[in-house]
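Worked example 3. Consider a protein that binds zinc ion.
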Amino acid sequence: MEIVLKEKTTEEDFELFKFRCSRWQKFFGLINFVISYRHKKIDDDAQCAYSDSGKWAVITLSTEVNEYEHSDHFIKELALHEICELLISNLASMARLRFNYEEVEVAEHEIVMRLVNVLLSLEDKIFEDEDNRTNLIIQSVLDEEHKEIFGASKEI
Ligand SMILES: [Zn+2]
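Given these inputs, the predicted complex is written out as structure tokens:
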């Protein structure tokens, strides 16, 4: 039997994870989701559970992750991964109703992995200065779109 050694994630890892998730959530304008976070032992390193109606999501960071992958970079990657799943959650939910669960999972992750790789390689540019003009412009466009789609903005 193969023994898989796991490494514990710390409270600091969890804080970084939550911070990264909410930053990407804002970046994508996924502000209609109310996200709550859990730090507990699960089989996967992280997980994103969501409602089909797109109202809420529960994102979990496992207290144990694969030993050799544990690093800040790995935590950042996990956070972006879960938010990308949220980004295509509506499409994935619909696909699961018609198609084989595993096949949808594979197709979903083809998109998620590409997004994660591209965005992580660009994140220094994207977030180089949280206050720079480009980000403010992107954010105001997202805020406007949000108002159009979901009505008056509400604080979450
Ligand atoms: Zn995944």
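Take a moment to read the result before moving on. Residues 81, 85, 109, 112 surround zinc ion (CB under 6 Å). The chain has one domain: 6-149.
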